[in-house]
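Two quick folds needed for the group meeting slides. Do the first one here.
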Amino acid sequence: MATRKYEGKKFELQTSTKIVDALTIEEALQININDKAFTISMRTPGEDANLVRGLLHAEGVINDVHFIPDIVLKKENEDGIVTIVNVAIPEDKLGEGYSNSRSLLSVSSCGICGKTELGDLAFIGKTIDDKDKMDINGINRMFEKMKTKQHDFKQSGGTHAAAAFSIDGELLCTMEDIGRHNAVDKVVGQLIHSKKIKQAKVITVSGRISYEIVIKCFKAQVPFLTAVSAPSSLAVDYAKELGITLFAFCRDERATCYSNAQRTKSVQSNIKAS
């Protein structure tokens, strides 16, 4: 259940019409770790286990990418929407991110809060040095594949999407959420659960790119990140530093590469800078 019907009045050309619109649901999910509150995520209900696993991976709370923790429903609201989950993580599987536990309204986990200089990257680890090259003429096909899976967006127009692909353009998974960052976390969580994270080479997102999404992409060790809209300056800076090939303005058979363009191939005249 990703949408909810709302009545409204639409004003157009000096006329008004009563309408019923499907709007994307946004609800809070409290994440407990070992029965202690860790954080709250505002998200679209559904795929909660994937969201939680992806978020804890991005935050460095779990130190083993292959570990699948038990995620237990603790509470639902009157609409049957999960509001609290508990994640059981043995002490030897807890990463440094757990010691940074904080009570916050987590609309986007970036894992780099408190870092003040771009050069301070030791906390992240080795940059991506992937040798694969991506045919930029395949970018549009990836977005078309993701678009066919945006069922919630077709109903409400209120969700973002993220998807993961192999280097050959095989769709591995796609997720939707009211939050761009949540959609990416859900994708990473699903890749971990399905044991396909090493196959993932490209992440596509339906909106713009901020540095938080670059960090999530890096922590999943995905070398290519592509977006429909613009990147922020900091997103480009981090993509350059972390070894991620970042494409933006990927629409209408166009794409602009802002970092690590050495991984591209088959550049043709129908690919123009935005």
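Then this one, please, same format:
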Amino acid sequence: MKVLVADDDADLRDLIAFTLTQSGYLVLKAGDGPSAVRRFEEESPDLVVLDINMPGLSGFQVCEAIRERSRIPVMMLTVRGEEEDLVRALGLGADDYLTKPFSPRTLLARIKALLRRAGMENTAPLAAGRVALDLREHTVSIGRADPVRLTKLELRLLQMLLANAGRTVSSDRLLVQVWGHRSGGDRQLLKQLVHRLRQKIEADPAAPALLRTAAAGYKLLVD
């Protein structure tokens, strides 16, 4: 389940991303309006959390651009909470709004409610080819083999790679997705995590056929 978080407040953007990542969502981030539109077009997220006040293009304009192409759930964020802003946001097709400041738990509950109303709860396995990842059970199945238990970090890594199956995901992007802004992470830790994951999913970890090393990062081959 991909969620695009667009807000020009870097600290808040990272906090929201960390909260959602901890709950099993795949998070995409944008710091301004044009970046939000570009990431939406490139990544096709399942839900968008969108700040009203952003440089380049406002949240209203980004919401309009999204609604020209998609009916995915959109949650607007505002610091003012003025009725005019809220009426305009809902009129443009936003599904919900939240006034800053808010707690991460409140945001998560509202996002889950939005996904339930849209029939898109984050419970179905994420699958591509012969790889199926069960986010609820923290397991992965390769073909007809029995499910294998994953740690939280292994789950996040495989979730990101599976969502981009067949495409290289940069090491920097994986570090942000797996460890989040609070914990940091470095390339050596990522290499160790890849090594441990290969022990669980590869028939021959010394000659990996699924989790491949690429020039700029890693990719998962699922065919």
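Slide caption for protein two: DSSP finds eight helices and twelve strands in the chain.
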